[in-house]
Amino acid sequence: MIGCKVVSDLATCDDQVTLYHMMDRLMERQLVKEDSVTLLNVKQSASVNILLEQNVLRLQQNGKRIIVNIAEGPEANFDAVTVSCGFKPRTELALKAGLEISRGIRVNQYLQEQ
Fold this sequence. Notes:
By secondary structure, this protein is of the alpha+beta class. The protein has helices at 2-12, 33-45, 92-96, and strands at 17-20, 48-51, 56-62, 65-70, 76-78. The protein has 2 domains: 2-83, FAD/NAD(P)-binding domain, CATH 3.50.50.60; 88-114, no CATH class.
C-alpha cells in the first residue's frame, strides 16, 4: 500500500517511475482481483511503468546510479530506489483457533470474526 502511494506521488512530480512487483497483480492480499486491475489501470494511466511477476535479485550502486537485477530479463538502472516489502498476515494461530481465513482473518463490517 505504501509503495503504491509513493509511486503515485513520484509520478505526480513528473518523475519516471518503474514499479517491480513480485506477484501477478498489485496489492493481491488487500484487494479483490477486480480492484487490483483498477489500481493497475490508474497507475499506468499516470505513466507508471509496472512490471508484474518480477523477482528482484540484487540492487547495486554504480556511481550515482542504482542497478536493479531481476531473475529474468534485463537489468535496469535508476537515480534512486525505494523498497516497499509489504506484509503477509500470520494466520497460524487463527487457524488453530478455528477462525475463518481468507487474505487474513475474515471479519464482518464491525470487524468481528465471522
